[in-house]
Inverse folding.
């Protein structure tokens, strides 16, 4: 295959509605079910991209699927075969980074162009980042069509096969393991609560911890029932707020870098400076508002209901 060309299109199979984890599964059975589910989703989006899909959500959804698989490796690290898991995780990290480069530029360009398509900044700036996005996307497509992605898929299958060989004799119930893992994730997420005036770095760190918590809860959502679903919905709102702050910060940083490297004068320069100031203001306003949002989340009782549901498994 010539680098950068797409293989013949094929129709991907529909994704199953969920991993199908039950309370009576062993931790190893649960890990296998969840990993298989998200690996299936990852492959479907890879097929779509190689077949020529241009929707930015395909990249986003594939990136989400790879993150869910990495979460399985982290949550069930005491259960999965260590050597196979480490080998696969190294390759999966490369996939996540490649997808992230494209996704970050997709988000940046959408912010530059504006929600209604009216470009609030100089068109040359949009063109600059669009070229970078096109190069990142081309590198991603070449990787998806090349031997390294095939190697990733082989290691994924190797991990699942190694785990499934041990499933029959696996002991324990995931319902007994889940509370320990959930309480650990809850404790980590709350280890450094945002103060009255958190810095942007503080909030970015919290966002990462909440992401790990969310992925852990999602691993067990089928056996947690309504308390798990309610907690996840509220947690997504916190992550969305933190994500908007980080997106504004990164957009300002990247346009400032562009100005340092290329410079702009006249109306174009003024519009870029105004864009940076606006995005800095959005990030700062979001940071000031977040502690109140966090207090409402902490006092909602959702965390306690989740803990009770986990303890009752």
């Amino acid at each position: 295959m010539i680098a950068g060309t797409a293989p013949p299109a094929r129709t991907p199979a529909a994704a199953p509605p969920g991993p199908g984890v039950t309370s009576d599964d062993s931790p190893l059975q649960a890990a296998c079910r969840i990993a298989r589910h998200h690996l299936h989703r990852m492959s479907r989006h890879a097929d779509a991209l190689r077949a020529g899909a241009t929707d930015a959500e395909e990249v986003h959804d594939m990136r989400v699927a790879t993150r869910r698989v990495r979460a399985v490796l982290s949550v069930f690290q005491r259960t999965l075969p260590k050597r196979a898991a480490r080998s696969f995780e190294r390759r999966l990290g490369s996939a996540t980074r490649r997808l992230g480069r494209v996704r970050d530029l997709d988000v940046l360009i959408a912010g530059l162009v504006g929600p209604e398509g009216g470009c609030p900044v100089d068109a040359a700036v949009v063109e600059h980042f669009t070229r970078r996005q096109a190069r990142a996307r081309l590198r991603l497509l070449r990787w998806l069509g090349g031997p390294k992605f095939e190697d990733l898929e082989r290691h994924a299958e190797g991990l699942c096969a190694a785990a499934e060989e041990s499933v029959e004799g696996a002991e324990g119930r995931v319902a007994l393991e889940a509370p320990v893992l959930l309480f650990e994730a809850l404790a980590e997420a709350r280890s450094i609560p945002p103060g009255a005036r958190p810095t942007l770095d503080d909030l970015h760190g919290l966002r990462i911890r909440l992401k790990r918590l969310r992925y852990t809860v999602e691993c067990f959502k089928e056996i947690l029932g309504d308390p798990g679903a309610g907690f996840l919905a509220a947690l997504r709102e916190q992550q969305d707020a933190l994500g908007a702050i980080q997106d504004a910060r990164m957009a300002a940083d990247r346009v400032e870098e562009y100005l340092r490297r290329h410079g702009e004068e006249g109306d174009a320069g003024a519009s870029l400076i105004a864009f940076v100031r606006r995005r800095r203001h959005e990030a700062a306003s979001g940071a000031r508002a977040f502690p109140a949002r966090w207090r409402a989340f902490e006092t909602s009782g959702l965390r306690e209901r989740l803990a009770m549901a986990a303890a009752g498994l």
Q: What stands out?
A: The longest helix spans residues 226-262. The two ends are 51 Å apart (CA to CA). The chain has eleven helices and no strands.
